[in-house]
């Protein structure tokens, strides 16, 4: 079963230095969807090891299975427009509407 449009939860504003979690979920897809987050239209990298992530100055953890994007300490650099995409290899992938987070 192809995924439906996921529901994204993105805070409209966040305080610098706080923990912020963005979530994305859809329940129709079978097999279960994997989720990819985008910021300003660019796919976010999944944090795989410490080396590459640190080099890219990644301050978040993205879980493709649960659809969460977790910032341990948000910075002004994390301000932007976020959306997520659900895909499970069946039918077209589905995106939620873009939401702006201001830090």
From TrEMBL:
Domain Ig-like: 3-103
Record's subcellular location: Cell junction, Tight junction; Cell membrane
Entry-linked Gene3D superfamilies: Immunoglobulins (2.60.40.10)
UniProt record, GO biological process: leukocyte cell-cell adhesion
Superkingdom assignment: Eukaryota
Membrane topology: Single-pass type I membrane protein
Entries under SUPFAM superfamilies matching the protein: Immunoglobulin
Entry-linked InterPro entries: Ig-like_dom, Ig-like_dom_sf, Ig-like_fold, Ig_sub, Ig_sub2, JAM2
GO cellular component: bicellular tight junction; cell surface; plasma membrane; protein complex involved in cell adhesion
Keyword flag Cell membrane: yes
Keywords (A to Z) from UniProt: Cell junction, Cell membrane, Disulfide bond, Immunoglobulin domain, Membrane, Signal, Tight junction, Transmembrane, Transmembrane helix
Main location: other
Family stated for the protein in its record: Belongs to the immunoglobulin superfamily.
Name of the protein described by the UniProt record: JAM2 protein
């Amino acid at each position: 079963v192809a995924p439906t449009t996921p529901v994204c939860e993105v805070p409209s504003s966040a305080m610098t230095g706080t923990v912020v979690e963005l979530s994305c979920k859809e329940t129709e897809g079978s097999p279960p969807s994997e989720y990819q987050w985008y910021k300003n239209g660019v796919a976010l990298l999944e944090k795989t090891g410490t080396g590459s992530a640190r080099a890219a100055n990644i301050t978040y953890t993205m879980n493709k299975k649960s659809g969460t994007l977790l910032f341990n300490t948000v910075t002004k650099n994390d301000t932007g427009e976020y959306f997520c995409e659900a895909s499970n290899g069946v039918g077209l992938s589905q995106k939620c509407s873009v939401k702006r987070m201001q830090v």
